[in-house]
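Suppose you are handed only two things: the residues of a chain and a line of SMILES describing S-adenosylmethionine. What would the bound structure be? This form records exactly that question and the answer produced for it, so the two can be stored side by side and reused later without any lookup.

QUESTION INPUTS
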Amino acid sequence: MSHFAATCRRISRAPRTLVSRVLSRQRSTATKRDQWFVDYHSDHARQVVGLRDKTDERLKLFRVEDIAGKRVLDAGCNMGAIVNHCMKLGARQVTGLDFDSAAVQRARGLYSDPTSAFRCDDLDNPLAALEPHDTVMFLSVYGTKELEDRNSILSRLAGLSQVMYFEGHHGDDPRDYAWVLLKYGGFQTIEFLGYTNDELREDSVGRPFFRCDRKPRDVGFLPGFIADHSHIDATLKVAVVGRSGAGKSHLARQLADDRRCEGVTILDDVNDPDRIHAAQRLVLFDYRAGTYIDQIDALFFLDVDENVRLKRFADDPVRQDDYNALLRTPPVRSNFLSFFRIEARQDG
Ligand SMILES: C[S@@+](CC[C@H](N)C(=O)[O-])C[C@H]1O[C@@H](n2cnc3c(N)ncnc32)[C@H](O)[C@@H]1O
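ANSWER OUTPUT
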């Protein structure tokens, strides 16, 4: 009985212990260095020299249609070179936000303009007024020491925007970032655009750079993507995952007949490591493909309306519940670079 009472006491104390741990001692606190990120950007027109000197390399990756006429937020804007670039591209309004007071002062001095504003604030501040924007820049900020809760900040910023440009840090593996963006961003698309190699340092190996958006895409996007990338990439490994009954086999047959996919190996539910390894250009259809193919350049998730899927399996209650098996088995792991969600055809 005394054992029972002790157990009850322990259980009833547990939540309080947990809350107090969260609110006090055990909470992780970031080291916030103020007046630290000085001389970060170069701006040759203003005779300013900074670490990111060959800034053109990075600026070329922004798509004009994501910026012209749009409301843009640059989260972690430093001295404002990206804000300035967005203004030049015709943004309707640009807000730069940074924790570092010296950087914000510098930005205000360099780039004051009626269409832009610079705010000194902390992205960790839960009361920071982050309004919806069309496009959010989150460039080389995610891994800095000044962020306490980087994944929730990434989620909040992603939720504010239709398009996000995301840059990682020097020498980091882009596949890790693709995974983080998939987990916390809720995007329809995560495109790896390459490395931004613009730093004034001899050992520069570049920073992984991504564009993410929420634009819906249908299955017609896939053959176009393969055709575009076949010109550029000698090897291209694509996996198409999605619930059983989404229409993967149907799409695989369509692709096999599509002239744009000539020379591409198309495998439907064939988990054969030798053939997967040997193929230079490959599209692999299998709901588990993302878990066993080693390295994937692009991962497509074929999405289907659940009611349509159930209708397809009207006479097959066992397959109706295949989806549960998919949920128990993680359908992808972090071994891809780009991600696209595509809508399956809804008829039949
Ligand atoms: C490496 S610099 C990148 C600057 C800029 N985004 C670029 O890519 O050119 C990182 C910037 O993020 C800012 N930063 C880091 N943590 C922050 C936070 N918690 N809130 C606001 N800004 C933050 C730093 O002050 C710094 O200016």
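WHAT STANDS OUT: The pocket of S-adenosylmethionine is lined by residues 37, 40-41, 52, 76-78, 82, 98-100, 103, 122-124, 139-141, 144, 146-147, 167 (CB under 6 Å). The first helix runs from residue 2 to 23.
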